[in-house]
Structure formats: C-alpha cells, structure tokens
Specification:
heterodimer; A: 4-stranded antiparallel β-sheet; B: 376 residues; alpha+beta; 27 strands
Chain lengths: 396, 376
C-alpha cells in the first residue's frame, strides 16, 4: 500500500495498481498529551454563597430565583443547591416548575454583582498558580498548569492547593477535573461532585469516554441527541465505532470534531483573555409593549446600554441582532451585517429599528426586546472623516 | 418613415444612446429608443430621466451610407432592437414604419416585423439657452472627469456628495469631489464667455458622458439651466439632471502648512501600494502603514491570518519630521491612478491629519486629500 501525502493534512490510501481500498479522504489523527489542564467548577456556586452568608438556609432546598408568587410565575432558576436537586430542580428550569416540584424550597433572588465579586477572588487564587486561566462563566474556568508558577509536575497537587485555598479563604467548595485537554478536564470535573477531584490519564481517556452517555459530549445538545439516537449512538463507545466520513456527512464540522473527541483528541488551547464574541442587553417587560412608540423608546434605551458596554470594552461590531419575544413566548431573532462598524447608540438604534420594521409585529404584544452586537473587533483604529458639515474653522 | 443605413454606423449611435436607457425604469416608454428621421439625417434619443442622450447621424456622413425615402418617427424597445440590429446578416439595413406603429426591418434575406410605440408619447427633452455656453475641448473635460469622479461618494445617505461640485468664476473652472474620506480637486483656466455658475453634477452622469465621447479633439459646449446641464458636441446632446442641495465648502479643508514632504514616482509608489494592499485587503481594517524618516521610507501591510509585507520605498526626496501614518491603500491607489505618469509630492501634517498629493510640477491646479486612519 502506498500513502500519498497531500499538504500533510490529507492522507490518501490506495492499493498499488490503481485499485482503491479506501476512496475517501483520511485525516491524520494527532493526539497531544503534553499538556496538563484543570477544569475548576464551583459547587452550586450562587446557592453556596447564599448558604455561607445565611447559615439558616443550609440543609434545606434552596433555589436562586425570585419566588414565582412575586413574579406572576416568570423567571428561571439560575442555581439550585444539592438539596433542591434531589427534587429534580436544576438550573435553567422555570421558577414556577421548581416551585411545583418543591413548594417548601427557599427562593432567594440572585445578587449577581456580589457573586461577580466572589468570582474575582476565586480567579485571583487561580492566578497564584498559572497565568493561563480561561474563564468560562462566573463559576468555572480552565487552567493550563503544564508550566505552573510552583514549577510542580503534579497537576493533582495544584488542584488540591486550589480547592484548599478556596475553602480556607472563601468557605466555598469546588470540583476539579484534571486531564491533558479541556474537553476531558471538563467531563472529569463533572464526574464527581461536589468537592470532587477526578484525574483522567491519557491511557485511561478512551475507556473513560466510551462509557459516557452521548449527551455528555460537549456540543451535543437537545437537537442533536435524537439524531444520534436514530443512528444508534447512545454512548461514547457507539460514537467510537462510527466511520469518520459518515460523521462528517451527518454532522459537518461537529462530526469531524466528535470523531476526534471520542478518541481523546482536542487541541483547543486555554485562552487567558478570550475575547467576548458579542455584547448585548435584553429586557423583559412586566407590562407588555403594545405601541410602536413604546418599542422605539425601549430600543433607544437598549441601544444606549449596548453602546456603553461597547465603549467600556473599546469594541465595535459589524452585526446587529434584534431579539423579540411576544406575549405568546414566540421568540424571534433577526440579524443584519453591515459594511461599516457600529458602536454608537444612534447607529445601533437605527439598525435595530430597521430590523424591527422588517420583522416586528406590535399587535402581538412584546414581552422582551434585546439588542446584541456580534462580529466584534477592537476599536483600535478610526477612519478619520473630513469635517464637511461642521461650520467651525478647520485648523489642520 | 423609411431609410437605409450602414449597420455598424447605426449600431454605434444606438450604443451611445443606450447608455441612458435602463430596462428597469418605472416609465415604460423610457425603455425605448426614439428614432426620428428628417431631411438632414437620423436622430436617436434615449433617457432614464436622470440622463438623456440624443445623437445625430447626418446624411452627409459618408460612412453612414444613409438614404432617406420618407421622414417620420417611432419608439422601439431598445434592448431588443439592439439585439436584432446586431444579428442582421448584411452590412446595411432598411427600416420602414408601417401602419399601427409596426416596423419592418430588412437586411439581405432577413425581415423582421416588430411592434413600436407612438413617438408622440416620448417625453420632450429640455430646451436650453444656447447663447450661454462654456466651450472646452473634449480632451480637457475628460481629464477633469477622470481626475474627480472617482472620489464621489457611492452612498445615497448624503446624495449631494454623489456629485462633482463645479464652479465657474473669475475665468476659472473648479471641479471637486469628496466622499468625506478623500477629496480631489482640479482647477483649469477658461476663456469665460458665460455667466458664473455653481452646480453639482451627478458623478454617474459624468462617467457616462466621458464614455459617450467619440472624438477627443472636438469641442464640447456646456450650457447650464436651473436643474439641467447640457453637454453638446457636433453629433450629440447629453443632458444630465443637477443635484439639489448645498455642497459643503471644501476649500477650507485643504491644508497649507506641512511638516513632512516626500516625492515619489507615481508608477513606483502605485506598484508598492498595490503589493501592500494584497495583505491589507485580507485584514479586517484594510490599512497600510507608511513609516518615514530622513534615511528611509518603509511601507507595511499585514493580515493576521496570511502574513505581512514590508517594502523599502524608493523616493526622490524627503524632508521634514519623521512620521508613522496609517491609511486605506485603496484611496491612495485611486488617487495615484488619477495622476497617470510623472511624479507626485505627498505632504503630511501628522498621523491624524489629512495628507495631500500634488503633481511635482504643480501650480496648485490639481490636488488630492486623503484622511488617514488613527491607530492606537
């Protein structure tokens, strides 16, 4: 058999004499096991902070959400403590549903500014061990400790120090997953919770992944799970058995990536200052918006808020997204990409109004509006404009 | 109406008036070409309401081989008519208007009968006072058009900037265009035999006009009316609508004090800019950087994904302060192309002020302004 290499990316297998054994492209598999990655996931973060500050809440079901009776049934659960989880309550569930599952649960409205402060302290602890910290959310982060500030070869030791520091200084617990890539580290931190620590060595990775249920694989969401099941894929092992080209045909880029992930291959680096990809604001209105004027006023307000955020982070973007939720909870988003960058409230309002004109229907009653800017780039340059319309004296 | 004409001569006239005919017009009659036959010759008219073009094929033009049997007029669908004429088999064709506006087109053994429209329903072109005229050689007008129209704005958000501002006063014609990122201005002395004017002519009209001229050496007579301009040559009337509104005062924007000056050969600088823009076009911001010191002038272009380029530019002369300035290379490219060959002097104030380009042998009659890009 002869292997023809093309740009070292594609390997073409072919039998001498022209008879093709595999007539499809084969992509080489390269497994990088040189890194040491820790994924730290705080245990029921928001709920744990509340329990720490209000010990009377400990040992009882606790839900971080406004009580549905105060909101007329609106609102979602951001966190539930482990007691509440026993009742089937989980984050992203509607507060009303949580109340139905456990009426005696304590509902506490979230104090997110405060949680953000706590999160900063946790990040400060991470930075004692490595500068390569990638925040994912307030309560989780990836750390690359291959070359750490302790010059330690043991990632387990560092994970223990971190758990210890967080407990000593903040009286909070976390779970850590340790492996040679982000994908497995995250699965590992979830493997044993709370206060867990799970190490997955390179030689253990395939077995660890094969045992997982397919919905645990990052990127396989609500829509993909049924398609996987249709193909007879329920576990990591089932996924492992699949042909690469079949996965690519069925799932595109994700198929390519899954074929690798289940083999323990995932090379995405820990990115310390991962840039925000979008900036936006949305507001839910207690009283439905029923006139064009009300929508205009709200869009203007949202545009100003988003413009302020963009300004704060010195960004401008090329795509404006308008989100509308009607009384019926039907939600639509419409995006528009423009040739020139926007970052002012006027430009944002203008683009959002155009989108509203295009898709909005005031007769349905508007429950929520949101403006988001994506395709963000740093505002490091500014095209200077001739002051054609200023009457003032030009002094070059 | 009945005549015989040389097919190529006729096609050439048809092509000219078709510049003004749009197939997408809201007024159906304007998708047609109006053909009028008189004892002197054949005139064709096309219009899209913004531009109207009338050409004339004289009976005395030998190449046209025009023979007239009967005067008359008709309007025919321009696009389709043109296709028919182009595909006719012989070098001459005969056209005859039958009853009910039907037209018979014969060439060799091929005979078409097509439906026309009544010429009386075609709009009348403006009547222009031909006493008040500015006369220029076509060559000079073409030069002005080439030197300014590229700088007009393509955005309809400021309609006035889509035109070229033309001012006649004190025996000088000034033409200036800007899209607010660059500006180009040409001044020519004229023998003024008409009243002063101050008008804004759509850039698109000027481009079509420039393409419609056939003879660089003939004279063009320019007449201005309240909202129309007429450019008249021996065989063509070219009308354009004028833009309404106040054009900004651009004169105050042209700086006169500079801190850094360099002289380049236009072709050499242009080639280097084109090389650098290969990479800048791949980047998000499309900027190149010029780094000037007394020892060297270096041009940088880069794209985070592809790579970068650095070029030590050859230049004639450099004087003044060192400077690093970033700008959009496309503006520079368009500006340099308007100079043709020769040498330019580029004058800078600072990294955040507009810089100018002028021919080295300049008497301030041609100047271009480009705004830089501020980088942090």
């Amino acid at each position: 058999m002869k292997i023809i290499e093309k740009e070292c990316m594609f390997v073409y297998y072919r039998v001498e004499g022209g008879r093709t054994m595999s007539n499809e492209l084969r992509f080489p598999l390269k497994k990088d096991i040189s890194r040491k990655i820790i994924h730290v996931d705080m245990d029921a973060f928001f709920a744990s902070i509340e329990e720490r500050d209000h010990p009377e809440l400990i040992g009882k079901p606790l839900v971080i959400a406004r009580h549905p009776r105060d909101t007329g049934g609106k609102g979602v659960v951001t966190t539930a403590n482990y007691e509440a989880r026993k009742y089937g309550i989980h984050s992203a569930m509607s507060a009303q549903k949580a109340y139905e599952l456990c009426p005696k649960a304590n509902f506490v409205p979230g104090n997110y500014e405060y949680y953000r402060e706590v999160s900063k302290k946790i990040h400060a602890i991470f930075h004692r061990y490595t500068p390569l910290v990638e925040p994912v959310a307030l309560d989780e982060a990836y750390l690359d400790v291959t070359n750490n500030l302790l010059h330690s070869k043991s990632a387990v030791k560092i994970a223990k120090y971190i758990q210890h520091d967080i407990w000593q200084e903040l009286h909070l617990t976390c779970s850590a997953g340790i492996s040679y890539n982000k994908f497995i580290a995250k699965l590992a931190s979830d493997y044993k919770k709370p206060k867990g620590m799970t190490l997955v060595l390179p030689e253990e990775a395939e077995d660890f992944l094969k045992k997982l249920s397919i919905d645990k694989f990052h990127g396989i969401g609500k829509k993909t799970v049924p398609r996987m099941h249709e193909l007879g894929i329920f576990t990591g092992e089932d996924l492992y058995e699949q042909d690469e080209m079949m996965l690519i045909r069925e799932f595109g880029k994700m198929g390519y990536s899954l074929y690798r992930k289940v083999r323990g291959i995932h090379d995405t680096p820990v990115e310390p200052d991962r840039e925000r990809k979008s900036m936006g604001r949305e507001l839910t209105y207690g009283k439905l918006l029923k006139t064009e004027e009300e929508v205009t006023v709200q869009l203007r307000e949202l545009a100003e808020k988003v413009a302020n955020t963009l300004k704060k982070y010195q960004k401008h973007g090329q795509t404006v997204v308008l989100k509308i939720r009607y009384d019926t909870f039907q939600t639509i988003t419409r995006r528009k990409t423009i040739p020139e960058f926007v970052n002012t409230k006027e430009a944002l309002f203008f683009q959002a109004s155009l989108l509203w004109e295009e898709v909005g229907d005031i007769t349905q009653g508007v429950r929520l509006l949101g403006i988001t800017v994506t395709n963000l780039y740093p505002l490091t340059y500014e095209n200077i404009v001739l002051p054609l319309w200023n009457k003032e004296l030009v002094d070059w | 109406m009945k005549f015989t004409v040389n097919r190529n001569a006729f096609l050439a006239e048809l092509a000219t008036v078709q510049r003004a005919i749009s197939s997408k017009t809201t007024i159906p009659i304007l998708t047609g070409v109006k053909i009028v036959l008189s004892a002197d010759g054949l005139s064709l008219t096309g219009s899209n309401a913004d531009i109207s073009i009338e050409t004339f094929l004289s009976i005395e033009d030998e190449k046209a081989e025009l023979t007239i049997e009967k005067n008359g007029a008709i309007v025919l669908q321009a696009r389709f008519f043109n296709e028919i004429i182009r595909k006719l088999p012989e070098t001459t064709l005969t056209m005859e208007v039958l009853e009910n506006n039907q037209v018979h087109i014969i060439s060799g053994k091929a005979a078409f009968t097509v439906n026309g429209l009544d010429a009386d329903s075609y709009p009348h072109l403006p009547v222009i006072d031909e006493k008040n005229q500015l006369k220029l050689p076509v060559r000079v007008l073409n030069k002005i058009i080439n030197e300014t129209t590229f700088a007009v704005s393509l955005h309809e958000s400021r309609p006035i900037l889509t035109g070229v501002h033309c001012i006649l006063s004190s025996a000088k014609l000034l033409a200036v265009a800007t899209d607010s990122h660059r500006l180009s201005q040409r001044i020519i002395p004229v023998e003024q035999a008409m009243e002063d004017f101050d008008v804004v002519i759509p850039g698109k009209s000027l481009l079509e006009l420039s393409r419609s001229f056939k003879d660089e050496e003939e004279l063009v007579e320019i007449s201005i009316m309240e909202n129309q301009v007429l450019f008249k040559t021996k065989n063509m009337y070219f009308y354009s609508r004028l833009l309404e509104g106040n054009y900004p005062d651009t004169n105050r924007l042209i700086p006169d004090n500079f801190n850094t000056e360099i002289e380049f050969k236009v072709t050499e600088l242009l080639a280097a800019i084109e090389r650098a823009s290969l990479l800048s076009h791949e980047g998000r911001n499309n900027i190149v950087k010029l780094s000037i010191s007394s020892e060297s002038v270096v041009l940088y272009g880069n794209s985070p994904e592809i790579g970068n380029v650095e070029e030590d530019l050859s230049y004639k002369n450099v004087k003044g302060d060192p400077l690093d300035i970033s700008f959009n290379p496309d503006y520079m490219k368009a500006a340099l192309k308007a100079f043709g060959e020769g040498e330019v002097v580029v004058k800078f104030i600072s990294p955040i002020r507009p810089f100018t380009l002028e021919p080295t042998e300049s008497d301030a009659t041609f100047i271009q302004l480009i705004t830089p890009v501020r980088t942090n």
